[in-house]
Amino acid sequence: MARIAIIGTGRMAQGLGRGWARVGHTIIFGSRSPERKAHIAAQVEGAQVADPPEALDGADIVVIAIPYEAVESFAHDYSLWLQGKLVIDISNPFDHLPDNRISGAEITARAIGSDAHVVAAFKANFWQTLLEPVDPSGVVRDVHFAGDDERDKQIMAQLIHDLDFRPVDCGPLRNARVLDAMVSLIVELDMRYAAGARRASWKLLD
Ligand SMILES: NC(=O)c1ccc[n+]([C@@H]2O[C@H](COP(=O)([O-])OP(=O)(O)OC[C@H]3O[C@@H](n4cnc5c(N)ncnc54)[C@H](OP(=O)(O)O)[C@@H]3O)[C@@H](O)[C@H]2O)c1
Description:
The protein is 37% helix and 17% strand. The chain has 206 residues and is α/β, with parallel strands linked by helices. Strands 3-2-1-4-5-6-7-8 form an 8-stranded mixed sheet, with helices on both faces. NADP nicotinamide-adenine-dinucleotide phosphate (NAP) is lined by residues 8-13, 31-33, 37, 65-68, 70, 90-92, 122-123, 125-127.
């Protein structure tokens, strides 16, 4: 079982934390205001809330679950803590990227610098579905991910299995450019076909 630092204490952080804590991973949330967010630990089995340095210390895996605009500076400021660790970037740039020639996750990897191990994942999975891996018609939802290191991706796939979703390996980290674009499209489709219920998912039928 892994020690997972989840940076942020919002909707995605809590959903992922709950799911992983259930199968025995140790969760430590990294918050800008750990005292004010301490109550969140009570909702996630065995979890703690600490400031980011304390959360990162000793973590095997880091999930960055803060707004996209804050991710690059976070990765830069904490690069020494992040180097060598599997860093899961779930953030969505939406219209913050000037074009589609780079992804948010590649910018995160660049900010971490040497020995960056970044995987992009969960980008297009609405928080409302995190604890609902099987949709009402019985279909297992997919989680698409991209990364450059095969071992990192094996761990990522296992973490996705741990939540009872199906992992879909989308190839190298540069393919996170496509994942970023899939987010805007699923938001549009969800509005058109599901009245904005935020339960739509991408599904690979193979
Ligand atoms: N919502 C979704 O369905 C969804 C789906 C896929 C991916 N994502 C991505 O996942 C990330 C988190 O989304 P969310 O919906 O969980 O957001 P959220 O509920 O607003 O939570 C974000 C958390 O990040 C921290 N935070 C806020 N502003 C920050 C800043 N300027 N610098 C550092 N930390 C800050 C806060 O925790 P503290 O106050 O404790 O520090 C906050 O609880 C985003 O990048 C989003 O694009 C969201």
